[in-house]
Write a structure and sequence with these properties.
Layout: H1 5-19, H2 26-62, H3 68-80, H4 87-95, H5 100-121, H6 176-179, H7 192-197
Helix pairs in contact: 1-2, 2-3, 3-5, 4-5
Length: about 200
């Protein structure tokens, strides 16, 4: 996660206030709330990206052996992101272990899976690969008083929704073959004898 210069300035002020509590101006409180909202958005986006990666990995696993190179690449990316290999992954890698990349990944996945099982059996929680959702930052010490309700921004934070979502049976976009129909081959010319008769 990377912060802009303005976000770092807001973060520095918030940390300084946490160490040495003093009343904050209204503008600083609003900046901190905006920063907390931005961090929440980044965390939820990371969760969506991880879910997409895992769904993509499952699709590639189902399409094996035809998707071998894509599957191995996605599995390496998922392992780098903290993915805990599933029994399906181990079974797929066992079937593909003739290749050197698949054999190396199988060894790595077996070590990770064994570590995960040992941790579960010992009663320890397996570390989560994505942070748990946190509660919203509602107040800062020295910020707005409890009696005063914070003002909400007057501009909508989300883009406007589309006018109407497409119906379940309705196809929102035509297929390319519908837009560009296949070329019709010209009818073969009649034989020379028939042309002479006409």
């Amino acid at each position: 996660m990377a912060f802009s210069a303005d976000e770092l300035r807001v973060l520095r002020r918030a940390l300084a206030n946490a160490l040495h509590p003093t009343p904050l101006p209204e503008e600083d409180v609003q900046d901190c709330l905006r920063l907390a909202g931005s961090v929440d958005e980044v965390v939820s986006e990371a969760g969506r990206l991880r879910a997409f990666l895992l769904a993509d990995l499952a699709r590639y696993r189902e399409a094996l052996p035809g998707s071998l190179s894509g599957y191995l690449e996605l599995l390496q990316d998922a392992l780098a992101a903290g993915y805990d290999p599933r029994p399906d992954d181990l079974a797929a890698l066992r079937a593909l272990r003739a290749g050197p990349v698949a054999a190396a990944l199988l060894e790595r996945c077996q070590v990770l899976a064994e570590r995960s099982v040992r941790a579960r059996l010992a009663g320890r929680a397996v570390p989560m690969t994505t942070p748990a959702p946190r509660g919203r930052l509602l107040a800062l010490r020295g910020g707005l008083s409890a009696a005063k309700e914070p003002e909400r921004p007057r501009t909508p934070s989300r883009p406007a929704e589309p006018a109407r979502p497409p119906a379940p049976g309705e196809r929102p976009m035509p297929k390319p073959s519908e837009v560009f129909p296949p070329r019709r081959r010209p009818a073969p010319a009649p034989p020379a004898e028939e042309r002479a008769v006409s």
